[in-house]
UniProtKB/TrEMBL annotation:
Domain Enoyl reductase (ER) as annotated: residue spans: 17-336
Example of a GO MF term: oxidoreductase activity, acting on NAD(P)H
Protein name: Putative quinone oxidoreductase
Keyword presence, Membrane: no
Species for this entry: Trematosphaeria pertusa
Gene3D superfamilies reported for this sequence: Medium-chain alcohol dehydrogenases, catalytic domain, NAD(P)-binding Rossmann-like Domain
Length: 340
């Protein structure tokens, strides 16, 4: 039986390992443009912390079959082929970007056309590749899950992370009355304020719960977007307003909470909402894509919203990029250019 077409893609030696185990594999089966799907030649892809967990074979959530073994969930590129039953008008040669379940660390990717976004002429490939995961996650947390209403206050943890930076901007343009962000250095706090936070708390110097209570006269904050988890739980509950919502997006500090007192929820009638993005079905992803286009794409294309790029690497330097991300040295997105 003849061998099918192949492509280059990033693989992990022995299936799992440290950043140094990453390499470009030149004999990976290439995807195709099947019915309802578009084949894209990738120009750039963004890095996310989930990629580290997948590289180490310890991803904490069940991956859908569409995820595959190739890492990477956000990309930009050029349409190479349009499959049958595609009717949204994408043509060969169109510049696009989007979110995928996996497979972006590669020369080519096949994705449902409903998840693709036309690339505005004001955005380049490297910037566009840094947008989908963080902005989709922020929009999901603030709007679809958190239900941000006009005039509500918001507390955003890990404000200098990719998701945090996106959430600050989405909240600002979404009608939040006051935004408080947390970050680990004065420089990162300054970045949060530059992006639209009214107050930025260096958590190494000050307790964010005390700052929230001071800023709101003891009434607390309406909506909390938390990527930290365990170590922030008790203080989140303490500084939440009556009937506030806490949206848990990640648990970077751990997932097991000691001395978990349900009275903290009952006393304030708090809602705790947990969400992930990669495990959502294709229909949800498409609806979220539409919400992104509605709420953020024009702002990004005109510069009213922006993505902070920390560093851009050639994909041959993927191990260096992972090492920097793993050490938490980046203040913004890391992007790799494919065949640059």
């Amino acid at each position: 039986m003849s061998k099918g077409p192949t492509m280059k893609a990033v693989s992990v030696r022995d299936g799992r390992g440290p950043a140094s185990s990453l390499y470009i594999n030149s004999s990976v089966p290439a995807p195709v443009a099947s019915a309802g799907r578009v084949l894209v030649a990738i120009k750039a892809f963004g890095l996310n912390r989930m990629d580290i967990m997948q590289r180490e074979d310890r991803y904490p959530y069940p991956l859908l079959p569409e995820s595959g073994k190739i890492m990477g969930v956000e990309f930009s590129g050029v349409v190479e082929e349009v499959g049958e039953k595609c009717n949204l008008g994408f043509k060969v040669g169109d510049k696009v970007f989007g979110l995928a379940y996996g497979g972006a660390y590669a020369e080519k990717i096949s994705v449902p056309e409903r998840t693709l976004i036309p690339l505005p002429p004001t955005l380049d490939f490297k910037t566009a590749a840094a947008i989908p995961e963080t902005f989709f996650t922020a929009i999901q947390a603030l709007h679809l899950v958190g239900g941000l209403a006009q005039g509500e206050s918001v507390l955003i943890h890990a404000g200098a992370s990719g998701v945090g930076q996106s959430a600050i901007q989405v909240a600002r343009h979404g009608g939040a009355s006051k935004i408080i962000a947390t970050a680990g250095t004065d420089e990162k706090c300054a970045l949060c304020k530059e992006l639209g936070a009214d107050v930025a708390v260096n958590y190494r110097k000050e307790d964010f719960a005390d700052v929230v209570q001071r800023e709101f006269g003891g009434k607390g904050v309406d909506l909390i977007i938390d990527l930290v988890g365990q170590s922030y739980w008790h203080r989140n509950a303490a500084c939440a307003a009556m009937e506030a919502r806490i949206v848990l997006v990640a648990a970077l500090s751990g997932s097991v909470i000691d001395k978990f007192d349900l009275r903290a929820l009952l006393n304030k009638r708090l809602s705790v909402l947990a969400t992930t993005l990669r495990t959502r079905n294709a229909e949800y992803q498409a609806a979220l894509r539409d919400k992104f286009v509605e709420t953020a794409l024009e702002h990004l294309s005109t510069g009213r919203m922006r993505v902070t790029l920390d560093r851009v690497y050639d994909w041959s330097q993927i191990a260096d990029a992972h090492t920097r991300m793993e050490a938490n040295e980046n203040a913004g997105k890391l992007v790799c250019l494919v065949n640059s």
